[in-house]
Amino acid sequence: MQRPLLLCLFVALALPWACQNDIEGSSNDGPAFDVPKNQVELLPFRVRLARVAQVAGVATDDPMLEEMRARAAELGDHDFSTGVRPNLAWTAARMSTWIKALKPVCTAEAFRARYPDLGADPSALIAAAYGRPAAAADLADIESALEGVAIDGEERTQAVCFAVLSSVEFVAK
Amino acid sequence: MTRLRLVPVVVCLVSCVGGTPKATPEEKAAEVRAYLSSIAPILVSRTLSADEQAVIDEAARSDDPLVAIDTVLHGWAEDPALAEAAREMIQTRLSVSGASAEINFELPGNLAAYTVANRLPWSTLVTADYCVGDDLSEIDCDSGAPYRAGILTTRAFLKARASRFNLTRASTMMNTFACQHYPLADDLEPRIARERLRTMFKADSPEEQEDPQAAGAFGNGFACYSCHGQFAWHAQLFVQFDDQGMWRDDATGLQDPDGELGRSLGGLYASHLATPEEARLPASQMLGQPVADLREAGAVLAASPELAACTTKGVLEYGIGLEQGAEIDPALIAEIASQLAPAQATFADYAVAVFSNRRVIQTVIRSFHAPAQPADDAPPAGEEPP
Fold first, then answer.
1. Global pTM?
2. Element housing B181 (H / E)
3. What does the alpha-carbon distance between residue A96 and residue A100 come to, in Å, rounded to a whole number?
4. Nearest in space to B89 (alpha carbons), one of B347, B335, B380
5. ipTM of this model?
6. Could you say which of A23, A33, A51 has the minimum Cβ distance to residue B363?
7. How confident is the model at residue B9, as a pLDDT?
8. Cα dist from B243 to B31, B47, B109, B268, whole Å
């Protein structure tokens, strides 16, 4: 039993680089804290607003985002002076309000000019929204959601826009 | 070699070589990208840029893929959106935002944003001798005090944290800027001499309690002196600020004989101190050092290692999305904070030090591969599940 163990030790000592993932490191320390993973928690409202503005290529005070700013409280923003605390739960009601707030964005001429082929190819919007290239799974998810739904081209374009800009990857931590 | 003897070798090779092979450049880039993508929205309100992704890809082909994290974080230090992250962090920690007819509750958040935008030390939050308006220009402060201590002397803070004996102002100050809770360590904040306190705060047990007003164990128990021997110092700093957050030169610190326990006359709050001469003045102590008023107390806090450790913890909590006060290995906080000079370090310095720390990176990246814990939290009251 000794030689196999020695061999194992040799392998471990000779190839330390192969015994670890370079990114995760070789430290034996346990996690320094517990990263919350249980619940979907929205990004702060102002962050979501800024992200939509960035994707749309406008400032956060642009008229395109007026509906979103007007619904800030419904969308979970805080105003402690009136006793309103931040609410970052991604509820059905909040999803519905978010979609309403997105509609002026997704139908804006400037937005459409920025993503001219959105209905047929959402890759550019996905890349802008997620900060990574669109993956096959992203496109498959959208196709799957729209499969069998009778919608025209304009409705499809809006649906794709809503799907990307209300995805958990875009709105949540 | 028997079949049994092969087992350790196979296990060894699988676990050491086959099971977790050296990551490819693509895999390394994906992990670094996932890490930075998880904190980018909170810190700079956006996703990774094309340039940042190129930095990640290039570093992934090198010996040290994590160098990309340092590079990207230093870039974020120059990003105007970082100021808004600081604003949001301080607003949610202090629960102050918005405005009423009389008070602009945005002033604390404005100061935080201004401090970051102008690359000032984060400790400016408790030392600034000015306030900052909604247009991020310096303005006069609103409490009317003859001195300033950044956020601590804004009406927003003072009004939002007004309470009897000034206990909430004191505890919020120590919690937010020093992460300290009462009772503090004896050597960090030596207690005031017992004989200087009002009778009700002197007791350490029910038998010692001589004040009938405290016979029902006011607050959290009978061991009053344990906490109030330190509360007395910090609450005294606020004795001249009334319940509207205004500074008053007619404050006495004396208990209103007809009022609720802990209230003084004219909307002011009562002092812990027994003699009228001491009760009316803000002269006190902060972290063991004598101070004349809240301005001097802010300066002591600003230069303290507690502020550096607390800011480190706060930035980590905020960036990762941890609950305030979450359990974090104290050694990690100490390691990061030791690199930062509390009186000089900027918010960007804290962000770079925290999120380029290898143990922070490892903890977050490992969490990507960990299974989700069983959900045990219901949605907040009044919210239906999606």
1. 0.86
2. none
3. 6
4. B347
5. 0.82
6. A33
7. 33
8. 51, 43, 21, 6
